[in-house]
Protein 1
Amino acid sequence: MSRGAAGPSSPGEVAAPPRFAGALHHVGGAFGPSLGGGRFETRSPATDELLAEVAEGRPEDVDRAVTAARRAFEEGPWPRMRPADRAAALRRVAEAIEARGEEIVRLECLDTGLPIAQARGQAARAAENFRFFADAVTHLETEAYPVGDRFLNYVVRKPVGVAALITPWNTPFMLETWKVAPCLAAGNTCVLKPAEWSPLSAVKLAEAIAEADLPPGVFNLVHGIGEVAGAALVAHPGVRLVSFTGETTTGKEIVRSGAATLKRFSLELGGKSPVVVFADADLDRAVDAVIFGAFSLNGERCTAGSRLLVEEAVYDDVLARVAERTAAIRCGDPLDPATELGPLIHPRHWESVRGHVEAGVAEGARLLVGGDRPPDLPGSNYLAATLFAGVRPEMRVFQEEIFGPVLCATPFRDEEEAVRLANGVRYGLAAYVWTSDLQRAHRVAGAVDAGMVWLNSHNVRDLRTPFGGAKDSGIGREGGRFSFDFYCELETVHTALGDHPIPRIGLPQATGR
Ligand code: NAD
């Protein structure tokens, strides 16, 4: 069981040794420190207090974890078990997550700054991910291709091998389970490398998996810095699959470094998703969704509706309503149930988001609300919910993923311009369309470049559907049976049912004498 994980040190103790032994790796069924003893710190986004020291994985730690995962894959029972037995083990993981649900939620809020009221949903989703993929794997079907009475050809799904699962710092626990559950359900083994800015809740996942009694080495956890531990994992010849969620630039680097060993990639990358509001929409509901879509999860959300495109006829009205609500968003302590917007994850990220705000002002966008630290909060990572109006497509705030609580509004004249604006960025993750015209809703859904579109809805996930992005937002889809397309190898078995003709070559030559 873990000696890791954390709670806050009390105020004023920042320089003192942490009260916790630290967050450890979990390799081959046991928690332990790095081979070289290295550690890094994780600090509270709200107060900058030291939360825990975390084992810092180096290439030798990654190698140990991959070796454990390979042994579990090649010699252990997991890939050869009946899907129903693997499913039973995954349901035990779901129960173990629920049993420590409150602890996970609290840890997640301390480590990421997510408001607790919103983090609760994330932890519940994590348990659901395990149950969902446990059910899904027992319902997986494969195909047969009969060829009259000559052949019966059929397809089997097999686990691929060791998967590297690399996750970002936003909603870490939910995203980790989103990868681990289908990966293990398919019979693979894995090494999880969580983000260095929010590593703590992954320790609880390792605990839950250990409690569910999965064979040792099926799940391994290695903490560490992306460019060191993550890079070593991607380059490791023992790894066959890489499922990565993070920034587009990191995704490109990962593909480059995994190319030498020809890995299979699933990449869920950045976004700059549009919310298109037509004048005939139910504006009350649209405004609710715009506010939640832009500012929930601190705006640190890949599918955030960060570009608000509004038809000219209702632009002023919608902006006035959105501005009023944005200004009223309650920014504060992530552990306060009344908080709607917590601190940003890290001072470096605060600087990056704030840099975008400054760029927006410099480029002539109109700052209607927010833009800086709220005056009444102690921590330095807080940024008030921010709204820009009059944003033009060539501006950086329109083009670049900010990944913070910043919403940019742009008017449009007609459907054609709305689609052009929606598509005028390099990303294509999600899009949201609000209109009461059914035909237009479907036309626009078809015309936008996005992996996922919501019509008259905020981001409500259906776990059966493919999740992922177009253009620079990623490669591949996970979710439902699509996860198994990534996490399984397809093997086609061709079976002769009779004596079909076989061309004969290599027979002794007739001499003619
Ligand atoms: P990031 O790319 O900086 O890091 C993601 C992970 O990759 C971390 O674990 C990091 O340690 C690791 N990493 C960094 N460099 C690496 C390297 N060279 N080799 C291997 N691993 C490396 O991303 P982030 O800042 O943690 O997360 C925010 C980004 O994630 C945003 O762009 C956001 O849109 C994206 N995201 C996408 C989705 C999606 O489903 N499309 C979901 C959540 C977040």
Note: Residues 166-170, 193, 195-196, 226-227, 230-231, 234, 245-247, 250, 253-254, 268-271, 302, 401, 403, 429, 469, 473-474 surround nicotinamide-adenine-dinucleotide (CB under 6 Å).
Protein 2
Amino acid sequence: MKIDVCYTPDLIHQYEVENKTVVVIDILRATSCMVAGLASGVQSITPVATVEECEALGAQGYIMAGERGGQKLPQFQLGNSPFEYMKPELRGKKIATTTTNGTQAIELSKKANEVVIGAFLNQKAVVNHLNKTKNDILLFCAGWQGKYNLEDSLFAGAICNALKNDAEFESDSALCALYLYQSMASDISYYISRSNHASRLTKFNVREDIEYCARVDEFNVLPKLKGAELVL
Ligand code: MLT
């Protein structure tokens, strides 16, 4: 089994996603929300690329969620906080979401053999699944508007670290992620709080989201794309 890391959607054209298990990673905050929501009883989450697609699903009865630039859209019921996704009234409900980076990365992964959702919140569940898969693996970081980000790369490194004895690193991207993680593993929460997107989010008063998204193994669930929907 081979493993590689794509650090931003702007680099995905250099990778083949077909026949692979793609793990989409957007720690702050899209994939953390997906894990928290589905683990808390949300029936399904449909990720879409545009606000218009989300509104079309809203007209069909979906709860509309997401953000642009980190901020909730006024016409949506939910923003992009894991705490909003864990509300008891969302149990059994279908959510449609569009976000600046995370749902774009999912869109670009759709030709993969399978697409799963990774976050620190479900790290062990991701590793357990990857240990069983027969596919080669691509860890796909959503980044920020096409650029590299720390928190997604750090999580990619955590997965590379967990699989380093069983998987062959396909390129130096995986090796760099491994070394990054190994140099920061002692205090993940601190290093995430130093990231560019954490500063951006702090201005919107969502410090608790940043701390929550850095928690490891809160949930033993693995969201997986089935058709257009993420389900457990
Ligand atoms: C994204 O998809 O870009 C993020 O989840 C942005 C955010 O923190 O809301």
Note: Residues 2-225 form a domain with the putative 2-phosphosulfolactate phosphatase fold (CATH 3.90.1560.10).
Protein 3
Amino acid sequence: MRLIFIGPPGSGKGTQAKLLASRLHLLHFGTGDILREAVRLNTAAGKLAKPYVVSGRLVPDDLVNELVADRFRRDDRPERFIMDGYPRTLAQAASFDQVLRQQFLAIDAVIFLDVDDEEIVRRLSGRWSCPNPGCKATYHTQFNPPAQPGVCDLCHTALIQRDDDREETVRRRLVVYHQNLDDLLAHYRSQGLLHTVRGEGDIETIYANILRVLKEGGLPC
Ligand code: AMP
């Protein structure tokens, strides 16, 4: 199966994509994770992407399109996958269509995880994580606070907030997201691939709704 997840930052699409990927044995392809790792390792792509990633702006289409196309043109290209965070613009969708056509691969469904902006701001701007590479625990000031504010329960390291989770950055990411959303949805709706799932509520309920939508679309899951 080949799926694309679309949703605002903090919609939980990463969590849902990982659950589904492990259930259906699909590769989880998260461009945000790939770009953050490239920034951390200071690769050539990472150097170019860094100013965009830390400020919550979209990395230029050419850079991210190349990154994805390279991966799909390799001998060990992904055959069954979930795209999480790509395509994010109409230009990316067009480029990805072309790459898939060249590879004789087709998308089975696009899941749009729909969450209101204010809910996103509440979720993301409260998110703190442990920078200790051996721990990486995450907390939320409202939903899952650490016992001692600002300190990891597990390893007692001082918690940090991801640069792109600060409230002003989250709001900027949402503006960018909305600028591209309608075109992206129209693109996949016109291909008959789009399924919308409300992304509010607990993880299990949203997951069950995604599975239901896929089954209703005749996809084995
Ligand atoms: P994410 O974790 O998916 O929210 O991605 C984190 C950051 O990586 C975004 O704010 C962008 O700067 C960058 N990024 C991830 N995927 C893309 C994409 N498809 N197009 C452009 N930038 C991206």
Note: Residues 38 and 107 are 27 Å apart (CA to CA).
Protein 4
Amino acid sequence: MAVKRSPLRADIDLEAPGKRVGHVRLPYSSHESAYGWIPIPIAVIKGGEGPTVLLTAGNHGDEYEGQIALLKLIRALEPEQVRGRVIVLPRMNLPAAAAGRRTSPIDGGNLNRVFPGDPDGTVTEQIAAYVASVLVPMAQASLDIHSGGSSLDYLPCAYARMPQDADDRARQHAALQAFGAPRAILVESPLTNFSMSATALAAGHLHFSTEIGGSGTTRPASQAIADDGVRRFLAHLGLIADAPPVTTPTRMMRVGGAEHYVYAPVRGLFEPAFTLGDDVVRGQLAGRIHFPEEPERAPRELHFAGDGMLVCRRVVSLVAPGDCLAHLASDI
Ligand code: ZN
């Protein structure tokens, strides 16, 4: 049986020393462009001997801190400053990023739910397959920069899966402290096993993700965490000599299971009773869902199922059953 090969190709040399910026070309024949390809931006900056680090953003197209941080890094970093190789994909799911959407307008694909992808699949599955089968094996470490996107807002944090192995935990802890976000949230029950993070960890990478802000925008404080954190991650791995210092130690937190989440059970308008950063206790009022079609009907009250700090909230007031409204994290 023939081995499936990704039809995607980088139009720059990813192996030779130097700095190159180009595209990963994804062949795509559409009504507008019969023999066209989708140009996913890629950069490589390779200096002396050292490890390869893969930096990605725009996995979800409406998360901007990472896209901007990586564009800045591509312009600033020169091969003579690098011991090793940095491969940068600032807009990994380009069709989604170009449309300012979480998911691809071409196939509806959520890139972070289709890893390790399929080289014969949809456009989104083909992107995942290229990253998983070509770029991930080139690297020993990776960082996938996310934020809350259009529907969620986060207290800026690094976001990582809780490793089972003690050595892995220590290595991860050191990297999270080096990244220097105000918080690092370790996830005990990941929402998906089909993410970039799952693929990178399965390949043995030192890897974590982030949730830096959100609301479909960026802010000076959250942008600085992304900009500086990327440099501190590279310095921690020995690829660059200098990075901005960490001012405050990272607060280590965990997010557990259902007790840490609040979901909408009904359709309506959500009125939160909390602010990001609040410490709440089990049974406390989380908010009310109002029924605009039935003005005389009392709103449905929602309560927290556990204790913790509000680290994430939905920013869109219109809610439907199944929407995540908030989630908590607690200190480790
Ligand atoms: Zn995301």
Note: DSSP finds six helices and 19 strands in the chain.
